[in-house]
Write a structure and sequence with these properties.
Blueprint lengths: L2 E6 L2 E11 L7 H9 L4 E9 L2 E10 L2 H9 L7 E2 L2 E2 L1 E7 L15 E2 L19 E2 L3
Parallel strand pairs: 5-9
Antiparallel strand pairs: 1-2, 2-4, 2-7, 3-4, 3-8, 5-6
Length: about 140
């Protein structure tokens, strides 16, 4: 992952990753992956857990920081709804002293292994750029 040089007391911003809050317990990592893949190629999506239960937030890592910039700085990142839940999207910060993928307190995540990142008409969620309902 690419870490920016911007640093605050909360940690360094991670250029190609976003924080996603407001996740319901019924939302899975694959839901997050496919929902945000409609905005640009997702590298990894993970939901933070405690004892196997969702803590209600997670992180999505994209292949390029331009997608993150669009989601954070334009209306594209506003009004997002996944499985009936309003999502909050914010900058992801790497806290000092924590590894990017420590595995502790996290889900396993969903990682893209293929090299085809097309956004063709058959991509999941193509029907609506802001709402994806997975059952």
């Amino acid at each position: 992952a690419v870490v920016s040089t911007q640093s605050t007391w909360e940690g360094e911003l991670v250029d190609n990753r976003i924080y996603v809050g407001g996740l319901g317990y019924h939302i899975e990592e694959r839901d997050l992956f496919y929902f945000f893949d409609t905005f640009g190629p997702v590298q990894h999506a993970g939901i933070i857990t405690d004892g196997g239960n969702s803590k209600g937030y997670g992180f999505v890592t994209f292949h390029c920081k331009e997608v993150v910039r669009r989601l954070l700085e334009t209306e594209e990142g506003e009004g997002l709804v996944l499985k009936g839940r309003n999502l909050y999207v914010g900058p992801a910060r790497q806290r000092h002293g924590q590894a990017l993928h420590s595995g502790r307190g996290r889900g396993h995540g969903v990682i893209r292994y293929d090299e085809d990142y097309s956004q063709g008409e058959t991509s999941p969620g193509k029907e609506s750029p802001r709402t994806l309902r997975l059952s």
